[in-house]
Write a structure and sequence with these properties.
Order of helices and strands of chain A: EHEHHEHHEHEHEHHEHHEHH
Shape of chain B: globular
Distance between the termini of chain B: 22 Å
Strand order of the largest sheet of chain A: 2-1-3-4
Largest interface: A-B, 10 and 11 residues
Number of helices of chain B: 18
Radius of gyration of chain A: 19 Å
Structural class of chain B: alpha/beta
Structural class of chain A: alpha/beta
Helix content of chain B: 25-40%
Helix content of chain A: 40-55%
Oligomer: heterodimer
CATH topology of the largest domain in chain A: Rossmann fold
CATH topology of one domain in chain B: FAD/NAD(P)-binding domain
CATH architecture of the largest domain in chain A: 3-Layer(aba) Sandwich
């Protein structure tokens, strides 16, 4: 199984732990990730809403480079990248004017967009290409008795979700169960984490983050599992401010790939666990 | 043209008020027609379908010795019959007439007056040349079988069957379930009068059972329908019930004696909220009041190794017959009423409302069973925890008026929910909130019922609910189900904590509606409801003559509307039967015997099974009573030896020439 890998800016910066844990876990499962050569920013949500055509060109360049370097789908682990690249694909499939403008821009760089490579999230690849049984077979240290709240964030399932339920996604629940963990029934799976509002309008943004942490605490979760660098950052970085306003809800948030790495028995130092503000490594090591 | 007579044609163009004359210059059309060969009279008139208009035709036939008539007006679907009668009143054969549609095909679809007038003249030229070749024809009259089949034993089917039976007609009522009664049998009370549903339904169910003119076949399905209006042959599949319903008296001793001491299988009548045994009677008022054995659950039927305590208990009555087999029965009927009903929207398709995840999220029909005195709790409303509810919310339009699921309004859910809201308030005193998009209460006494709900303290919040969750953000939400909704009248987002959330699920076509449509050769709307012949003028007829529709299989409706439609369908069937026979259009195909080579290729093509093979003469034979004049065989005959009345080759070519001449 070979895929083009689009890490995106976050996974090279504050979401480094996601990249660090994703690579060895995928390798263990026989998934080859070939990083797209000279990739650029996906444009995220901001650019798409200010300049649609240029934003599509930005996304299409990454897809076009991947397509020209061989067959296979693209894996985009960051929810924002996953959404932006899929929006680009949807737009170029249906809007011939934008497609023509984008092709013209790509031609300058001697690139052509064909739309043959699908953009997929690691969750989808793990559940549908690798398979839950293969994941289960690789578990050497089950995350026994660890109560984990699966938190998917909003961008994976809205507005489109091709592989899971829009309101009640279950792909991560299935992986966590395979790892031996106890999945907490978590109704806020796809509720917004606050996104960039935690930085630009903290009053509104932090309240949203607090709602998720508070509910996870009420439901007795030891950990929150995430699949998006911004979600993980918000849930991990503002504990002091949240505690001051609403009382403490100190539950560590980690990437699903870090949990998989632990369960697969990979060396802890390879999984970027030391990067958490609210450490989870001791908790994980104890299981 | 005919040799022994000269053609004398009368031509009439209708203004249809302003419908045609606003776009087509009718005077110019009449003037043009007067120049064509054989035209003796050419007139324009404001309303040709009026009595003076028809009289004009009759007078002209007598005065000008006309032998052909052409009318340019609306669609033949509307007035071909009218004008044929006028022609006959003048003493001419009614088929020496041709109609031109310059309204639907011209005036209504064009705006350019000159071009529309030219199109009308081209069509008129075609008709005038064609009609000259028409030959006198005779309509044939086919007999009507007086028996009627009613498919579906819900309230619509029951009412239709009783109406027909009371009029002295023999009715076969076929119902798929082991009992008649349909959805109405599950209801506790009915809106807007709050009268007991069982009290008004069960007398009709008993009347069906005892009526001498009704043959009731429950646990049965229509497998096949052949034939045509007045003469249908229907195959009914009677599933094995394993109990002879004529011998069973409904004493239930077999059920008590069953080796399953405790009922352990979900009871569909109570939507799985209570349990039943492999041998059961569907509900207390079931008709027929006879037990049924579920072959997938009965140990004897599954493994052949049971003590058969049920048979012992039945003793001398010998009603239980474990060797009963499915039967295929063939009946002859003249008309068919389809009243196959609807299915409820599956609330799991909207996961944001948590149905199937939260035990205290239920559907309106489940609540209906919970408040019914014959329901699983004897009418006592309890949460799954056993406590009585203190705050109950109804979410309307679940699976209705929604681009993601079904776009239509299910019409009954507003009233149904308000009825349940009043019952819940009366019985428990709980706070009740209804979350709605629009309250639709358009029936007689319905708006007053809405007022009554308000007076009883039912609260209404206008807004489509975003989600139901058990996530508490404040202490008063703890342990509750929380509805998140934008209150579009107050202009903010509300969080409403509740103990019980009721989803007002909408109606959908039956899962096998397409199968039924094929069996009866009907049409379906894009949504899957059976299509009426005309939404206003023929609301219970279908495009298949002799097949009528009633109740929710045609679209969502409440009990009064279903019964009104069932009565209308029964009246249509009665009109058909009491007319004694039906005139058949003589536009049938016929074999030119000497030319037919006996290749049989037409036989399999005929959609009406009207063609057979005469083995002695080695020729195809067309039964004019079955032929619908579709022309498939005519076009496909390799030797060109099939002709068709009113569509002879020369007639069609002459029509084409008429258009081409004008152009």
């Amino acid at each position: 199984m070979r895929y083009h890998y689009f890490p995106g800016c976050s996974l090279k910066g504050l979401g480094r732990a996601y990249d660090e844990s994703l690579r060895p876990v995928m390798e263990r499962l026989g998934v080859e990730l070939a990083e797209i050569d000279d990739w650029n920013c996906c444009g995220a949500t901001a650019y798409m809403s200010t300049d649609h055509c240029n934003a599509c060109a930005l996304g299409a360049r990454n897809i076009a480079i991947a397509e020209s370097s061989g067959p296979g789908d693209i894996v985009a682990p960051c929810n924002a990248c996953y959404l932006a690249l899929n929006k680009t694909r949807n737009c170029l499939a249906g809007d011939s004017a934008t497609r023509a403008a984008v092709q013209k821009a790509l031609a300058v760089a001697k690139l052509t967009y064909t739309g043959t490579a699908a953009v997929r999230h690691p969750l989808e690849v793990l559940v549908y290409d690798v398979g839950i049984n293969v994941i289960k077979r690789n578990v050497v240290r089950p995350l026994k008795d660890l109560k984990i709240a699966p938190y998917y964030g909003c961008q994976l399932v809205r507005p489109h979700c091709s592989f899971d339920d829009q309101w009640n996604p279950t792909a991560m629940d299935r992986i966590l169960t395979a790892l031996g963990a106890r999945v907490v029934d978590f109704p806020l799976k796809t509720r917004c984490c606050g996104g960039s509002l935690t930085g630009t309008a903290p009053e509104a943004g932090l309240r949203l983050t607090h709602i998720i942490l508070g509910e996870a605490q009420r439901r007795g979760a030891d950990l929150i599992a995430t699949i998006c660098p911004l979600c993980q950052f918000n849930l991990d970085s503002y504990h002091d401010q949240i505690a001051r306003r609403w009382g403490p809800a100190r539950i560590p948030a980690v990437y699903i790939t870090q949990l998989m790495g632990m369960a697969f028995g990979l060396p802890t130092e390879q999984l970027g666990l030391k990067r958490n503000f609210l450490p989870a490594d001791k908790l994980l090591a104890a299981t | 043209m005919s040799n022994d007579e000269s053609i004398r044609t009368g031509f009439y163009v209708c203004h249809c008020g302003h419908n045609i004359s606003d776009v087509v210059d009718c005077t110019a059309v009449a003037r043009y027609a007067s120049t064509l060969a054989g035209v003796m009279v050419s007139r324009d008139y404001k309303y040709m379908c009026s009595s003076p208009g028809q009289e004009l035709i009759r007078q002209d036939i007598l005065e000008h010795k006309l032998n052909r008539v052409v009318v340019a007006s609306c669609s033949p679907l509307l007035h071909e019959h009218t004008f044929r009668n006028a022609v006959a009143a003048g003493g001419l054969n009614p088929f020496l007439f041709q109609m031109v549609n310059i309204r639907e095909h011209d005036a209504w679809v064009h705006a350019d007056r000159a071009a529309a007038t030219a199109k009308a003249q081209a069509l008129v030229s075609a008709a005038i040349r064609r009609v000259a070749l028409h030959k006198p024809l005779q309509a044939t009259r086919a007999p009507i079988h007086p028996d009627v089949l009613v498919v579906g034993g819900g309230i619509a089917g029951i009412h239709a069957a009783l109406t027909l039976a009371n009029a002295g007609k023999k009715v076969y009522l076929v119902e798929r379930q082991p009992s008649i009664g349909g959805h109405m049998a599950q209801f506790d009370k009915t809106f807007p009068t709050l009268d007991c549903a069982a009290c008004i339904l069960t007398p009709k169910m008993s009347a069906v059972r005892s009526h001498k003119n009704i043959v009731l076949w429950t646990y049965s399905e229509v497998a096949k329908v052949d034939g045509y209006v007045g003469n249908y042959t229907v195959t009914v599949r009677r599933k094995a019930r394993y109990v002879d319903e004529n011998l069973c008296v409904g004493c239930q001793e077999c059920i008590d004696a069953c080796v399953f001491k405790v009922p352990k299988f979900p009871d569909p009548f109570n939507l799985g909220m209570s349990m039943q045994k492999p041998i059961y009677i569907p509900f207390p008022q079931a008709v027929p009041q006879a037990a049924v054995i579920d072959p997938d659950r009965c140990i004897q039927l599954k493994t052949g190794k049971c003590k058969k305590t049920c048979v012992e208990a039945c003793a001398d009555r010998k009603a239980i017959n474990l060797n009963q087999k499915e039967q295929l029965l063939e009946i002859k009927v003249g008309s068919i009423i389809t009243a196959t009903g609807f299915k409820l929207f599956d609330a799991k398709r909207l996961p944001e409302y948590g149905y199937g995840r939260y035990p205290d999220v239920m559907t309106t029909i489940e609540l209906e069973r919970l408040v019914s005195s014959s329901g699983p709790t004897g009418g006592e409303l309890r949460l799954r925890s056993g406590k009585p509810p203190t705050a109950v919310g109804f979410i309307l339009c679940v699976g209705s008026r929604d681009m993601r699921t079904n776009r239509w309004c299910s019409r009954t859910c507003c009233m149904h929910s308000m009825k349940l809201a009043q019952i819940v308030r009366e019985r428990t005193g709980a706070q009740v909130t209804v979350f709605y998009i629009d309250i639709r209460a358009p029936g007689k006494g319905y708006e007053e019922f809405y007022d009554r709900s308000l007076q009883q303290g039912v609260q209404f919040v206008r807004g489509r609910v975003a989600e139901v969750s058990d996530c508490a953000l404040s202490p008063d939400e703890a342990g509750k189900l929380v509805i998140r909704v934008e209150d579009t009248l107050a202009g903010f987002v509300r969080r409403v904590p509740l103990d019980l959330v009721v989803l007002a699920v909408g109606m959908e076509p039956q899962a096998d509606a397409q199968e039924m449509r094929r069996i009866l050769n009907m049409s379906c709307s894009a949504e899957g409801w059976f299509l009426e012949k005309h939404p206003k003028m023929a609301p219970v007829s279908t495009f298949t003559d002799g097949v009528f529709i009633a109740g929710c299989c045609q679209g969502p409706k409440d009990i009064p509307d279903s019964i009104a439609q069932a009565g209308a369908a029964a009246a249509e069937a009665l009109a058909l039967i009491d007319a004694g026979g039906i005139d058949q259009e003589p536009n049938t195909a016929y074999i030119r015997g000497e030319e037919c080579s006996g290749c049989k290729s037409c036989i399999s093509l005929c959609p009406y099974a009207a063609i057979s093979f005469d083995a002695e003469k080695q020729k195809a034979v067309i039964n004019p009573a079955l032929c619908k004049g579709c022309g498939t065989c005519v076009a496909s005959c390799p030797s060109g030896s099939i002709g068709q009345n009113l569509f002879e080759d020369q007639e069609v070519f002459e029509e084409i020439n008429g258009v081409l001449d004008y152009v």
